[in-house]
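seq/struct pair 1
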Amino acid sequence: MKVLSYVPSFGEQVACAVTHYESTSLANFLTLKNDQGHVLYRPTVHYAYHACEDALDSIREVEAAGWNPDLHAVKHVYRAEEIQDGGCDELGVLMCTKYPKDGTYWYGTTVYSEEAKAVAPYSTATSVQVAAGVLSGALWMQRNPTQGLCEPENIIDYEQVLHDAAPFLGKLHLGRSSWTPRGGDPTNEATWQFNNLRVSGSSYDPRSTRIFKWSDKGSW
């Protein structure tokens, strides 16, 4: 499934909605219920990922072959040393509001390939971002051996977790924009409904839409 999303470097883009558990845990954490347990509010939360163009070309080839990778005679898995410097992986949370004065916020990490290799040889920007979460999570468990199973949203000392992960996360920064999907009115609830974020077919080109100025508010 394809969805609209937004990142500081590119702007609006068509990404793939993929399964990630935080889509459920965040939605549960932010859900409001009344005394009878009926849901009063539950936000739209999903995980959107846009791979690099070469990876997307490979996915299209497999799709054209009926999702049977065995039909490809030549296969090659790129290693870290084959990935050129200059590319980056941006991973963050895009929080959209219905209040025009607040706009849309993005907070996350931008790691370039050369930064990842400097931190850990033979790694990629994506792999060090994943490793950062594993390492900081393991350190948290060491400090809290009796807490049992916890969701990230329930961790109180999250600032310490971010501090432990920061050396692997390149630039941690916060930005704000006036972006809305399809240029919709932010005060209209329909603008933020999931159906308005979905993209069907290949007719929608984000490059043809308005370009929104991104204001970088700060970094870690």
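seq/struct pair 2
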Amino acid sequence: MRNERTMRWQSWLWLWLPVVVWMGVIFAFSSMTMLPSLPGSTADLLLKKGAHVTEYAVLGLLLLRACRGSLDVASPLLPSLTTIIIGGLYAASDEFHQSFVPTRTPALRDVAIDVIAVIAAVALVWLRQQRRQGQS
């Protein structure tokens, strides 16, 4: 009995610890009052929005991995939807958090970019699986 409980706990840590750590990384970046910037508004905008896409695409991949390992379902739909919902909620909470950080302002546009990045990550995994199944 104890061994089974230990194995479940280790499995949960293996699946969810990377998610929690990455969320911490995102939180740390959101807490920075002075972000690196590039000269020129277009380059700076691309840098910052690219960072949003990268952060949340990685979060989407980690969440999908954790949800697939945690939810005992045959269909990939539930883990995918759960990933998108958790990613979207975290994106919204991250922007809310920024409202308390001096020099930072929350933006609904950033939440949308973050959610699109999570959806893109889920879609890329789905497309990769479809390609693999087609090759089998």
